[in-house]
Amino acid sequence: MQLLQNQNIFLTTGLKEGQDISFENGLIKDVKPSSANFKSESKYILPGFIDLQIYGAAGKLFSADPTIGNIRIIEEQLLQEGTTSFLICLATNTPEVFNQCISVIKAYRSEARNCLGLHLEGPFINPEKRGAHVREYIRKASLDEIKSLLDFGDGTIKMMTLAPELQDDEVIQYLLDHDVVVSLGHSSATFDQATRAYNQGIQTTTHLFNAMSALQHRAPGIPTAVFNHPTAMASIIADGLHVDFEVVNVAAKVMKERLFIITDAVTECSSGPYQHVAVDGKFVMPDGTLSGSAMTMLQSIKNCVDRCDISLADAINMATYYPAKLMKMENEIGQLSLNAQANFVVLDEELNIAQVFYKGEEIKLNKAASI
Predict the structure, then answer these.
(1) Choice among 151, 192, 244, 264 that is catalytic
(2) How would DSSP label each residue in 248-269?
């Protein structure tokens, strides 16, 4: 049994000071008020971050070179950054690349650590809202293709972004029936079409405001549909480049626990269809089109607090508890509660990473990370 005493701990309800947290065999055994008589250090313990959309890290873009060695490198880098759970994302690509990536994740899953599986962002999106996605690979799904894809995936495909206005209802329902989280994104759906999609069971929305019909006073679009819906969630990129900080502020006020953070992070790549170039703190395609972010989850939290007027407690939930709820994994990850995985980040008084624990084991940090 390991014990950290008299700590400042972020629970889903907010900060609790003077708490003991004990853990054993990779699981949290108890969180309770401390009886220790020493003064607590100025540190904070919070759940490990959950990133449901990231393409690569440490110079490894997974789709460009899908190998077990590279997913190991990505996992380790994300653990260094406090991300203890993530979905590796694939942008619209050829079936051959998708199959290669799926094969690697299937072969690796028995030894996987913080990689939960795959998020397929495309290819079943709307070419009008393709953003940095390659147009020639975009297509409409058939039910047979979806059945084959999920059969081949064998449970590794956890999330799929698609444009519901271009897909048959039976395709979407099949995904939902087979426990794939369906996210509305890269879509020109009208307010009515998006509302219908959410009512049919689509659970969430990919990078709110980016690559979708806009919120306009005579054409309310996807953002208004998700704002107005009682259960539909949305991810957002809090880098100030993909979405202005004031807009993140408004979205958080309206959506509350239905809005969560993703990094949408990529890494430099000079091969394949997605050649990301780092320019002034962001990534663009060779033609200048904005692509993924250069963010970490910790930096995203900092931006929410410092630039978007979101409380630290709420920002932490946006990076932990809310995405866990979307994935129906909130009893396992995303909160510091009895029998949840002992995945947590220790921040110092300046909100720098001091320690990272994954399933109760402390990760040896290469260097301090900060936000």
Answers:
(1) 264
(2) HHHHHHHHGGGEEEE--B----
